[in-house]
């Protein structure tokens, strides 16, 4: 019986094949070492089944179960201005703003 060999497997790689293989290996290394930097992790303000509330007169916040009303001293964020993720547009905004006792948006006393 004669033995057949796969000529393409036995043949040394061409220069182009080596360049492509090196480029793919380098790209894989970059993705692995950077932790897939293109995919940023964003932490939610509250967990599932909760909504965020703002401290009246201050910049504190809390999370309240969906079925409950805000506790004393807290209020719901104004509609359309509710932070969803840490450091999103509204989370940053409410670092320097708050609600007064009448529900008006004001500059937070500790931000001035």
Task: Give a topology summary.
Elements lengths: L6 H4 L4 H20 L15 E6 L5 E5 L8 E3 L12 H5 L3 E3 L5 E3 L5
Antiparallel strand pairs: 1-2, 1-3, 4-5
Oligomeric state of shown chains: single chain
Structural class, by secondary structure, is alpha+beta
Count of alpha and pi helical runs: 3
Strand order in the sheet with the most strands = 2-1-3
How would a crystallographer describe the biggest sheet? 3 strands, antiparallel
Looking at the structure, what is the overall shape?
elongated
Poorly predicted runs of 5 or more residues: none
Please trace the helix and strand order, writing H or E for each element: HHEEEHEE
Gyration radius, in Å: 28 Å
Distance from N terminus to C terminus (CA atoms, Å) equals 91 Å
Number of beta-strand segments: 5
Portion in beta strands: 15-25%
Q: Give helix % range.
A: 25-40%
Overall mean pLDDT stands at: 83
